[in-house]
Design goal:
The chain is an alpha+beta fold. It contains 8 helices and 17 strands. The strands form 5 sheets. It has a 5-stranded mixed sheet, covered by helices on one side. It has a 4-stranded antiparallel sheet with strand order 4-1-6-7. Strands 3-2-5-8 form a 4-stranded antiparallel sheet. A hairpin with a 5-residue loop joins strand 12 and strand 13.
Length: 299
């Protein structure tokens, strides 16, 4: 009888712990504008990382944006000004995935990291005259997706740019000209179909002295690609809607799986989907810094 009581107490303790751990409806991942939260009787400024309970109320100001993630893992964007009851918002959410909670926590922990620590992990100076391409070092240059976006620092060299793709044997595979400091490339196109390792180089056609180092793109092996696909399918339904907040969650997934090129692409897609929300650009810059793909700003 005593052992049964102990077992019952243990189960009750675990259930209480679970309920306590889930004692919120949403967490704030992205915030733009003077949005406010009413918890109890008082209104207070809303901050990234805030936990919202069902009894709380939100006040969204004009020209603002709020990116929330439900306890179930479902993302929710609020763009219209007005007052919202958190309980009503929660009732509209369905089809979430608890797997996303760890990526939510990763995003929030990254957002609250001290800026000095992020700067300290910045990229090694590759030469002041070199164009810095935002790609990782070769051992982390693996790619899962066929479609990737490659971006570089436009401050060091004027447009237009010539992006050259070569094989490991230095054969030209493709060349792209652009006036922007980025290109989108399909690694499954006929030019790259038989290449597992691709060399990338960016040069300014306006200034022949401005050229990047050579960077690498490595296609993921079939076995690793199958493994990542299985993991990605756990969150794919929840993040299927093409909005900036879902792209942020997908970026966290890729970064946690050391797929930095895919993560960078997802960040850039988030910026494109919400160009008027500065935090997405800030999160992308922080991502580049902590993964040594961008030089830390000098003080």
């Amino acid at each position: 009888m005593k052992s049964r009581r102990l077992a019952s107490f243990g189960i009750l303790f675990m259930l209480c712990g679970y309920i306590h751990a889930q004692d919120y409806a949403f967490k704030v991942l992205v915030n733009k504008g003077r949005n406010e939260l009413k918890s109890g009787n008082n209104w207070q400024q809303l901050k990234v990382g805030s936990s919202l309970k069902s009894a709380d109320e939100l006040k969204i100001s004009e020209n603002s944006y709020l990116g929330l993630v439900h306890v179930s893992g479902k993302a929710l964007e609020l763009k219209q000004s007005g007052n919202y009851k958190v309980g009503d918002l929660s009732a509209k959410v369905n089809g979430g995935s608890n797997v996303l909670n760890k990526y939510t926590d990763f995003i929030l922990s990254s957002a609250t990291s001290p800026k000095d620590r992020l700067a300290a992990t910045g990229a090694v100076d590759r030469g002041k005259d070199n164009i810095q391409v935002y790609l990782p070092k070769p051992e982390l240059a693996v790619v899962y997706n066929d479609e990737v976006i490659i971006q570089w620092d436009a401050q060091i060299a004027p447009a237009p740019y010539l992006v050259t793709f070569r094989s490991m044997f230095d054969d030209d595979l493709d060349k792209l000209e652009t006036n922007e400091n980025r290109v989108a490339v399909n690694l499954n196109s006929k030019n790259f179909a038989n290449e597992d390792n691709i060399i990338v180089e960016v040069a300014s056609t306006a200034d022949k002295n401005k050229i990047s180092n050579r960077y690498t793109l490595k296609k993921l092996s079939k076995a690793d690609k199958a493994r990542i696909k299985t993991e990605l399918e756990k969150i794919s339904v929840t993040t299927a809607e093409p909005n900036a907040l879902n792209k942020l969650l997908i970026a966290a997934f890729y970064e946690q799986n050391n797929l930095l090129i895919d993560a960078g692409t997802a960040y850039l897609e988030a910026i494109q989907l919400a160009p008027d929300v500065p935090q997405y650009k800030e999160d992308y810059d922080a991502f580049l810094l902590r993964n040594a793909m961008k030089k830390a700003p000098t003080k």
